[in-house]
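Lesson 9: reading folded outputs for more than one chain in a single document. The general rule is that every protein is listed as its sequence immediately followed by its structure tokens, and records are never interleaved. Here is the first one.
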Amino acid sequence: MRLNFTNGYRPRFDQISRILLFVFSREQNKKVTKQEIVSALGISGKQVEYLTSMMIGFGLIYPRDNTLTPLGKAIIQSDPYFDRPETLWIIHFIVSSNPKWIVWYRIINKVISSQDRYAVKEVCDQYFSDLAIHFSEKTISSELPNEVGAVFTAYSRTELSRLGILKLGNRGNYIKSDPIDMPDLAFLFCLLFYRDNYLPGSSAINIKDICLKESSPGKVLQLTEYQIRNTLNNLHDKGLIRIEQFADLDQIRLSDSFTQESILERIYEVRNAN
């Protein structure tokens, strides 16, 4: 697990777009160094360090070589300014479902699902006291409040605020809000990502697990069981999944013919066609 994922900074999507474009322009390279990014874009080394850390967490670039993932390539070609709700939901799901990014993960999977109002100090005290086993007291006191504050800021003052997960309240506190609608194909991508990363080898997933388990689409995307079943029915009607409800079964079955990459192509082709 990593405590200092954001290093206390909010995501700067304008700068993330610049880095994505630069890395895309070096597509033939097997590796893009952080120093190359600093020299080409005039961004400080410290900024590049925290921005590339976030980009790895968002699933946009690969660690170590900083080359584009399929998602990073799709975004820079079709949604370079992070305007589309599909893009925002997908990067939200990727970073929030990964327990490695412990602060971001707990805020989405535990804090927001447990209460409606949040203050940084109370969240630190209530949900992260066990971190003393893994980190020094000095590290926790100096870094944890900044990390918690950065996640709340990301969802209240950056492009991610358009998801409507939370909003800034009075006296610097934050309030749970009503998220915007989740596009069906983006939900399917999240299902595939969840299956591939947390249930490898599975072709069927219990619907209750989709709704309630940590790292699951229901938990991370802040969806009710009614919303999830409605979306699953839509995907079933389109032939993209199969719902199996007989005897004691209440599950979906995913086709091997659909992959994360193939659904990304559908998402951006559909949007471009409109």
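And here is the second record, again sequence then tokens.
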Amino acid sequence: MDADSIIRFKELSFEYASKKIINNLSFNIPKGKVVAIMGGSGVGKTTLLKIISGLIPSTPNQVYVFDKDLALIGQSKKNELRKQIGLLFQFGALFTDLSCFENVAFPLREHANLSPSLLKTTVMLKLECVGLRGAAHLMPSEISGGMARRVALARAIALGPKLILYDEPFSGLDPISLGVTAQLIRKLNDALGSTSVLVTHDVVESFEIADHVYLLAPSENGAVLIGSGTPEEISKNKDPYIQQFINGQQIGPVKFHYPAEQRKKFFLSG
């Protein structure tokens, strides 16, 4: 039992359709912090989120959330555990036929026995937290993508979760919405006393708000952990892949050209 960690991975490996996705990951997510799990597209970041939330089954003794081995608890206990987890999907995933108010109210109606007046107050407070109390009556089609992401964030925190999971929270946002979303993640984490886990490949925004960063890299046997530390420590890490990733360099371990026949031989043949 680790009182300082809300999530623990112990030699976690995962494969799908005989393809190895994650290889022997071991690290802890500390309580009360904003933690970024970073890496290139397809490296298994979203898979980790699905494992944490129980959407993908885990193997015994590999994944612990709230000190519970996810592989050894029943479905009813897993459902109770999920009530303590807020999840912000990559593109918000609002219910398009429900207003902003009803989108935020949805988890409260499902899991909390609130009076109509208390439900209304709670929903409006959550929307106020993300600056959208005035948009409560609007439909998702009537608001911008950045606003929709904030409504989804209000929904994710509706039940006062201890753990908030963010799947690519900055994807597809304009610079203003991106900055607003990043600061909201930091402020809400501190105000709620929760723990926030971001899976992302956006370096600048993540480094501005994260307390700790874990960096994954691809390998023949699945994603491996190659860097861990504060944003400053990661920036100073001399590993070639880390430097290529955080600085967006073309030259490095990840090649620009997909392996192919030598150009001269190919273009001069025939």
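What the second record shows: Residues 60 and 72 are 6 Å apart (CA to CA).
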